[in-house]
Amino acid sequence: MENIGILGSGRVATVLANKLAGAGHAIVIGTRHPAQAAAKLSGARVELRDQAETARRAAIVINATPGDTSVERLGALREELKGKILIDISNATLRDQNGLPGSPLYPGSSVAERLQDALPETAVVKTLNTMLFTVMADPRSLRIPPTAFLSGNDENAKAVVARLLGDLGWPADWIEDLGDVTTARGTEAFVTLVPFVLRKRGLAPFALTIAR
């Protein structure tokens, strides 16, 4: 079992914390709003700390902060994240007039690449950013098997993340390793399709998949 820190305390962080705690992992959520975060946890044994302490204590850290502020926020935690695995599940876009994802914030790059540049002694692994948040911890909720993509420079770190995806309910053959961190450009580009999916179907669970 791993000591896992989750930076952020919104819906994504809560879903992952509940499922990973249920699988036996020690979970710490780094949040600026502990009372609000505690109300969302379904009886799981999860600690609440500030983000610096969360990053310091965990061996594996999940970035569940908004992608458009992730580089600045996590860059400030460079020492705390040194030597850790950072699982980046964020997307970064400009927002349209309705507050929905618009154009990519980092054209020709990605949040994952920017994080890896800002955190050179941290192994950044991109995953779980091509689906509605509920699917991250319940992939079998969809009629068609979804795909969880991996992008990162460190092969050992990606192997650890793949095992954690198993604890979230992902079979090994539903996981696709795309290669180094630059491949996150592809999966992050998927977010530009999301507003149209949401307008058509609402918040019904969905995910990108490779049909085989």
Concise overview:
The protein has helices spanning 11-22, 34-40, 51-57, 67-75, 111-118, 133-136, 155-167, 184-189, 194-201; strands spanning 3-7, 26-30, 46-49, 60-63, 85-88, 93-95, 101-104, 123-126, 148-152, 175-179.
CATH class group? Alpha Beta
CATH architectural type: 3-Layer(aba) Sandwich
Please give the number of β-strands: 10
Q: What's the number of structural domains?
A: 1
> Which sheet architecture does the biggest sheet show?
8 strands, mixed
CATH homologous superfamily (4th level) name:
NAD(P)-binding Rossmann-like Domain
CATH topology: Rossmann fold
Low-confidence stretches: none
The secondary-structure element order is: EHEHEHEHEEEHEHEHEHH
What fraction of the residues are assigned to beta strands by DSSP? 15-25%
Question: Residue-averaged pLDDT, rounded?
Answer: 93
Number of helices: 9
Radius of gyration: 16 Å
Summarize the structure in words:
By secondary structure, the protein is of the alpha/beta class. It has a single domain (3-201), classed as Rossmann fold. The chain has nine helices and ten strands. It has an eight-stranded mixed β-sheet with strand order 3-2-1-4-5-8-9-10, sandwiched between helices. The chain has a two-stranded antiparallel sheet with strand order 6-7. Helix 4 packs parallel to helix 5 (111-118). The termini are far apart. The mean pLDDT is 93.
